[in-house]
Design a protein that fits this description.
Blueprint: H1 29-51, H2 65-71, H3 78-98, H4 112-131, H5 135-155, H6 202-206, H7 257-279, H8 281-287, E1 298-303, H9 312-326, E2 336-341, E3 350-352, H10 355-363, H11 377-387, E4 393-398, H12 408-418, E5 421-426, H13 449-462, E6 470-476, E7 486-488, E8 498-504, E9 511-519, E10 525-527, E11 529-534, E12 537-542, E13 550-557, E14 568-572, E15 582-586, E16 592-593, E17 598-607, E18 612-620, E19 625-627, E20 631-634, E21 640-647, E22 656-665, E23 672-681, E24 692-700, E25 710-718, E26 726-733, E27 737-742, E28 749-757, E29 762-769, E30 774-780
Parallel strand pairs: 1-2, 1-4, 4-5, 16-23
Antiparallel strand pairs: 2-3, 6-7, 6-8, 8-12, 9-10, 9-13, 11-12, 13-14, 15-17, 17-21, 18-20, 18-22, 19-21, 22-23, 24-25, 25-28, 26-29, 27-28, 29-30
Helix pairs in contact: 1-3, 1-7, 1-8, 2-3, 3-5, 4-5, 4-7, 5-7, 7-8, 9-10, 11-12, 12-13
């Protein structure tokens, strides 16, 4: 999975400040978000199929991750698709919890300008991140901005004003949101008892004035203004009393809940379409984890130091053999990644979807440099773990011990977070070439026994090459006025009770019957109480979490089988989990910062074990300069606070993802825990103007027999003198031939020529500029005939 940075996965109960999240009769944020993602994914896959001249079979309604992945010919992507949807929904929920009293995140209190700014700025970050393949950052930010977007339709009077379509200007920074009520203008009267259907003033509705309710705990509101309403909104007790929210069917304006939810779904789809157009269908689907063939990328972390000179040819042969064994099969990787390492350098990360390009690149490598024998293998592995998508398969090829052993805990934390399979292929002298790694004689390589054990420990953590068909996340009860569950995104706490959310993948009908935490030592196990939550999700509660390393064992029943015996399944997590007595929590309220600036990340630590002096280590995968304390003194049960400062060089490309790992180690190394944040370096956007298409000529040679006649089109595309420049021009509709060129003497004017059969009379160009502004330009020969 992507790192769920300090995730507030909350299953909201009564009193939520937006569409509810728990399953029930009312529509909720998770339903709205998932429905829109599935719809837009189907459209993207359909468009790709049409472009490739293939027949696309739409999946049956209602769509599910399994049926959509199958329709996209990406059967093995259902798990990664599930994980992507979960991350986006989780960020949406976290935004509600973390910003419950910030009105802009909910469009409360008529904060329309600030709310729209959150959406448009976040949209720019998403587009830049996708362009740099920082998919986890893109998905997290996507979930964040979807929350205020969806709340607009529940908290404002957009529905009451009679609007049937979404407010498209919420995702456009250079337009008017609407006629917003002045701060001094009254907008509501008190409800008639429990009946609030007519509490918005008639002149507000007649003049098409935009307003939204005020919300807060023990807060006041301007005279005459509407309130949000609900049990925990104390402003609704102040004249004018009542509220206007449409969060549920039982809310103040619950009679409009269905309309608000439908508009929120349409608006979510509209925003996703904008992201899709800016990224292109293939990159958009890759961001969501939809890949044909195997959904699992393959990554090689390769030692290129001089000591590998005798082995480099064998390494190239091994690499080619692994790739060739998968190409053309159902296990063909979705992408190929290479991270070279030596000493003192490692990286950069190279990525491609073409196996031949990848093999040629590997074959061009030579073994040079290195100095002393130990190399920076763990630095290379860290970059691979943060640069490759979750659930990847990584092969580390080396003949040397790790020089950067201080990164062991960081690498182990990233393996646990991403659930990636790591395989170590360590070259050995010829006399030992017939021995397996497990039976390698002591001293049989140039590594000490401790060095070999380090690699074995990391390989064991990643689970070999085992496969599973479920996702799982540990939960805890949050603090504050909202009830439900927060997600534990690092090591679970040993000894106490706990809960687990299990999501089945690969089946729409299977059920979980039993979940067991099995200690790796084989000495004990803890069975949980399973409660179905719908949509393939199961909440499992345990009276205690094991105090030693364990795995998650899931048992269930496939309801597709006529035989109950043959329908039984059992799966085990590939990643072994290590409980901790430490809780490390980093503040992720700000996840983007500009090149040349420093971001301060506050974090807190608490231990239920013995106190003392604890070691602190903060590392990042981009090698950015950072400062943090080296130790913290902890007392049992007392929270300690500190800060990590991270500086991005001024030349960092916009959209670059940075993974920050903060780990805390108990005295003597007896215990450790961590938190991981996905940050994005982003240059603020000043260009909000869409590219422009100007028709130069349209010539028709069409006859009654369209198969024997052609038509031609010439278009000039520009992005304005102050624009960021045209980045891409693609065909969305049309089966003809398109060519593009730069006009002589100008780097900002693009010429497009298009030729097609008269049987294909329409064409649509999608033009994207350097910061993701999208313009769709449609032309037709029908108008010229």
């Amino acid at each position: 999975m992507c790192v769920l940075a300090a995730l507030g996965f909350l299953l909201l109960q009564t009193g939520a400040a937006g569409f509810t999240i728990l399953p029930g009769e009312s529509h909720n944020h998770q339903e709205i978000t998932e429905k829109a993602i599935l719809n837009v994914t189907v459209e993207a896959c359909h468009a790709l199929a049409v472009a490739e001249g293939k027949t696309f079979i739409f999946p049956p309604q209602p769509f599910t991750p399994e049926t959509v992945a199958a329709a996209c010919e990406a059967w093995k992507s259902s798990k990664s698709f599930h994980r992507s949807i979960f991350l986006i929904k989780a960020a949406n929920w976290k935004t509600d919890i973390q910003n419950i009293l910030n009105p802009a995140y909910h469009f409360d209190g008529e904060t329309f300008t600030d709310g729209r700014k959150l959406i448009t700025e976040g949209l720019s970050v998403i587009k830049a991140a996708i362009k740099k393949h920082s998919f986890c950052s893109a998905k997290w930010n996507l979930g964040v901005i979807l929350h205020p977007l969806q709340d607009f339709y529940s908290h404002s009077n957009w529905v009451e004003l009679g609007n049937k379509l979404p407010n498209s200007n919420l995702i456009r920074a250079d337009t008017s949101i609407g006629n917003i009520a002045a701060k001094t203008r009254a907008t509501c009267r008190s409800c008639d008892g429990d009946d609030c259907r007519n509490n918005i003033l008639e002149d507000i509705l007649q003049e098409n004035i935009l307003t939204s309710g005020y919300f807060g705990f023990l807060f006041s509101k301007p005279t005459g203004k509407c309130s949000h309403g609900g049990l925990i909104d104390t402003t609704s007790l102040i004249q004018p009393k009542g509220g206007i929210n449409k969060d549920t069917f039982t809310s103040s304006h619950g009679h409009l809940h269905g309309k608000a939810a439908n508009l929120a779904t349409s608006a979510t789809s509209e925003l996703l379409q904008d992201v899709r157009e800016a990224a292109g269908d293939r990159l958009f689907l890759q961001m969501l984890g939809i890949n044909k063939g195997s959904s699992r990328p393959i990554c090689f972390v390769l030692d290129t130091t001089e000591s590998m000179n005798d082995d480099i040819a064998a390494v190239k042969a091994i690499t080619s053999s692994i790739i060739n064994s998968k190409v053309g099969t159902n296990d063909e990787p979705s992408s190929y990644i290479l991270v070279p390492f030596s000493d003192p350098d490692f990286g950069p990360l190279m990525r491609t979807t073409d196996p031949e390009v990848f093999k040629n690149y590997v074959n061009s490598l030579s073994a040079t440099g290195g100095g002393d024998f130990p190399e920076k293998s763990l630095s290379g592995l860290q970059l691979a773990l943060t640069g490759a998508p979750p659930d990847s398969e990584i092969f580390v090829l080396s003949d040397a011990s790790a020089k950067d052993t201080y990164l062991k805990d960081t690498v182990m934390a990233l393996i646990e977070q991403t659930k990636t399979v790591v395989n170590f292929l360590i070259t050995i002298p010829e006399e030992f070439s017939h021995h397996t790694q497990a039976n390698l004689p002591q001293g049989g390589s140039r590594m000490a026994k401790a060095d070999m054990q380090l690699y074995k420990d990391l390989a064991w953590t990643s689970g070999g090459e085992s496969m599973i068909d479920f996702l799982f996340d540990f939960l805890k009860e949050p603090h504050g006025p909202l009830r439900g569950f927060d997600l534990v995104d690092n090591r679970p706490i040993a000894g106490g009770n706990g809960s687990l959310m299990v999501t089945l993948t690969g089946s729409d009908t299977a059920t979980v019957t039993e979940v067991i935490l099995v200690e790796s030592s084989g000495l004990g196990q803890v069975k949980g109480l399973v409660k179905g939550q719908g949509e393939g999700e199961f909440l499992v509660q345990f009276d205690r979490i094991p105090s030693s390393e364990f795995v998650v064992l899931v048992k269930g029943q496939s309801n597709n089988s006529s035989s109950s015996l043959s329908g039984i399944f059992q799966r085990q997590s590939p990643t072994s989990l290590r409980p901790s007595t430490l809780i490390v929590t980093a503040d992720d309220s700000d996840t983007s910062f500009e090149p040349g600036t420093t971001i301060s990340v506050p974090f807190s630590v608490i231990t239920s074990g013995a106190g003392g002096t604890f070691s602190i280590q903060a590392t990042n995968d981009q090698g950015f300069d950072s400062t943090s304390p080296s130790t913290l003194i902890l007392e049992t049960g007392v929270i300690a606070h500190s800060t990590v400062n991270l500086t991005a060089p001024s030349n960092t490309p916009s959209g670059t993802g940075v993974t920050l790992t903060i780990q805390v180690v108990a005295p003597g190394g007896t215990d450790f825990n961590y938190d991981v944040l996905r940050l994005t370096v982003f240059t603020p956007v000043t260009d909000f103007t869409k590219p422009v298409c100007q028709l130069l000529s349209l010539q028709s040679h069409c006859s009654d027999n369209c198969n024997q006649s052609m038509w031609e089109l010439s278009v000039q595309v520009t992005d304005g003198a102050e624009g960021s420049g045209v980045d891409s021009i693609t065909l969305r509709e049309g089966n003809g031939t398109m060519n593009t060129s730069i006009a002589a003497g100008s780097g900002n004017i693009n010429l497009v020529t298009y030729t097609a059969s008269c049987c294909s009379p329409d064409v649509q160009l999608v033009v994207v500029d350097g910061v993701g502004n999208v313009m769709s330009c449609s032309f037709s020969v029908r108008t010229a005939i």
